[in-house]
Write a structure and sequence with these properties.
about 40% helix, 11 helices, 7-stranded mixed sheet, binds 3,4-dihydroxyphenylalanine, two-stranded antiparallel sheet, BirA Bifunctional Protein, domain 2, alpha+beta, single chain
Amino acid sequence: MDIETIREKAKNDIRDANDAQACEVVRVRYLGRKDGELTNILKSLKDMSLEEKRKFGVGANELKIELNELIENKLKELSTKKERHLDVTKPGKKVALGHLHPLTHIDKQIRDIFSSINFTIVDGPELEDEYHNFDALNIPADHPARDMWDTFWIKQKTKEDGNKHIGKFLMRTHTSPMQIRYMETHKPPFQILVPGRTFRYEATDASHEINFYQVEGLMVGPDVTLANFKFVIETFFKKFFGKELEFRYRPSYFPFVEPGVELDIRLPGGKWLEVMGAGMVHRNVFDAVKYERREVQGFAFGMGLDRLAMIKYGIPDIRLFYSGDARFTEQF
Ligand code: DAH
């Protein structure tokens, strides 16, 4: 059989092959080591005269390469066709869903509860100035109370824009400066909630991080009292934990409130846990925002979101929140 005839036959066979198995059959028929039609011709070359070798040799070897290529291409074509085929009856691929971070869960729960009792949610800057973070909150420079907040100060050039009174910049050590910022631009009565990220320059351990989250609350009006605070905060905690709780108020000191209290809660069967600082807004704070101190009064409170999450979910170490370890977040 001559080369040209084999070429025509083989091409037809390859064209007709409609799966990988059929391709293999064609390959064996022409190129099979034992009895392939083209293989046999190649094998017989060695017995041919020099002249015949020249005549057949080149063509036969070229055809071998060509057929291999054609089969290769056909196989490729068949496999991409298969990929493109859409079987609409197949079950869908499951998309791996991520998890909300536990602090995101807690943040949302807190916002929802306070929104439901008419608090406005307010946002504020993480980069603060000394005036709003300290001075206006009745924490003057050189006052020992400043030691309560270890601060990340920001390096800066001296300001020449007439804003000297705001002092240096820092990463806010608490969400309380938003009390000032809100009162500077709003008239009472109002009640606000300020969730946000806060920073402290301190050594980390199981209950301290250099970066954590707080929630600030502030309610101001002509006759807001500590009794209103107790009602609001006890309503919140009962909803948040979904259980009856015991509450304990202890006198405490924070420069921006007078009187100041700390609140402890006890879950059924548990021990007392300190959850927040609070108090009646100090009149120096009202002075700083130019409110008439005889006409308004209000309560303020601040709590650590991380701490609430630790209590609610039984998390033993605050550093886990910021570890980026999926084995931790996947549990929520
Ligand atoms: N800002 C305080 C802190 O970070 C917490 C706090 C205490 C906030 C008493 C308040 C408050 O609004 O009245 O330690």
